[in-house]
């Protein structure tokens, strides 16, 4: 792995429970440059949690390899947020400090919980969203090189989401942390993530810097016609009118009105296409 690659997969695949089972992830190859904030997107069951579990070293691949920083330089916030139920908030952070001597980012961890969680509250008495906040505080306090977050914002209220996302991005920018963040909330990824991995049916459908992917695609409307040599990601026709998202091969020449897609346009079109391919 070069110094500028934070996470790399080569021909990565896994089937849970042996040969008779279907592939949960297959033929997955990518190299995520260090310092990126990467959105991991895909329909339910696409393989996002599986990929994060493999990257965190919690799952063993059936084929291929995944290269990530060692466990002490990586933090993983899983969907179920495992924490010690009988510890208080303050004890949990103290434990984080003790487990990460010389590296603990106490200020960031404190910022995630201060004013929101009483230090003496027991973990078992916290709500789902409060537990998420504490798990994020622990992950930020660890000052990891690679931060893997599995739908971290799903059970947070909108204000907490905004606040913690802001804190996360500020910390990542300050320390050059690479973040991989799975999410179904597409609007939230716009302006947050600079890299994209889209999975469908256990395979990578899109991979690259968000700006490059957006630049490579065009939304067009106009008369129905053959769009070759461009690749049509998704198209709809209403009467004689065509609306399509294309991946361009050279300039778009024709009577169409073209606009740049938003990240949400791009993701929705690719998600609908992979959904269609499945049914
Ligand atoms: N522990 C497991 N045992 C067997 N199969 C599993 C296990 N975990 C996941 N799978 C299967 O692997 C595939 C990928 O699941 P995964 O949880 O990685 O998807 P996901 O993209 O994270 O989905 P979601 O958006 O619903 O969280 C699915 O077909 C799922 O049924």
UniProtKB/TrEMBL annotation:
Keyword check for Transport: yes
Keywords: ATP-binding, Nucleotide-binding, Transport
Database matches in InterPro entries: AAA+_ATPase (IPR003593), ABC_transporter-like_ATP-bd (IPR003439), ABC_transporter-like_CS (IPR017871), ABC_Transporter_VariousFunc (IPR051782), P-loop_NTPase (IPR027417)
GO molecular function, one term: ATP hydrolysis activity
Superkingdom classification of source: Bacteria
ABC transporter domain sequence ranges: 7-226
Stated name of the protein: ABC transporter ATP-binding protein
Organism encoding this protein: Streptomyces showdoensis
Classification of source organism: Bacteria, Bacillati, Actinomycetota, Actinomycetes, Kitasatosporales
């Amino acid at each position: 792995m070069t110094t500028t690659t934070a996470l790399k997969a080569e021909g990565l695949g896994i089937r849970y429970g042996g040969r008779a089972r279907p592939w949960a992830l297959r033929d997955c190859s990518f190299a995520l440059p260090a310092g990126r904030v990467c959105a991991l997107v895909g329909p339910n069951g696409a393989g996002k949690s599986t990929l994060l579990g493999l990257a965190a070293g919690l799952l063993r691949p059936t084929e291929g390899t995944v290269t990530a920083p060692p466990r002490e330089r990586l933090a993983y916030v899983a969907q179920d947020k495992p924490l010690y139920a009988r510890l208080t908030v303050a004890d949990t952070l103290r434990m984080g400090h003790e487990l990460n001597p010389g590296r603990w980012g106490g200020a960031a961890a404190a910022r995630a919980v201060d004013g929101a969680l009483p230090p003496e509250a027991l973990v078992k008495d916290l709500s789902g969203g409060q537990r998420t906040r504490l798990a994020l505080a622990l992950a930020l306090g660890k000052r990891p090189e690679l931060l893997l977050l599995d739908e971290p914002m799903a059970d947070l209220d909108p204000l907490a989401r905004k606040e913690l996302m802001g804190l996360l991005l500020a910390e990542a920018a300050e320390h050059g942390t690479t973040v991989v963040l799975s999410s179904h909330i597409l609007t939230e990824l716009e302006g947050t993530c600079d890299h994209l991995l889209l999975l469908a049916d256990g395979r990578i459908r899109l991979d690259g810097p968000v700006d490059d992917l957006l630049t490579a695609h065009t939304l067009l409307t106009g008369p129905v016609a053959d769009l070759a040599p461009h690749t049509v990601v998704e198209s709809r026709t209403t009467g004689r009118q065509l609306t399509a998202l294309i991946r361009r091969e050279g300039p778009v020449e024709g009577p169409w009105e073209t606009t740049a897609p938003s990240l949400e346009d791009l993701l929705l079109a690719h998600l609908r296409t992979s959904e269609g391919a499945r049914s």
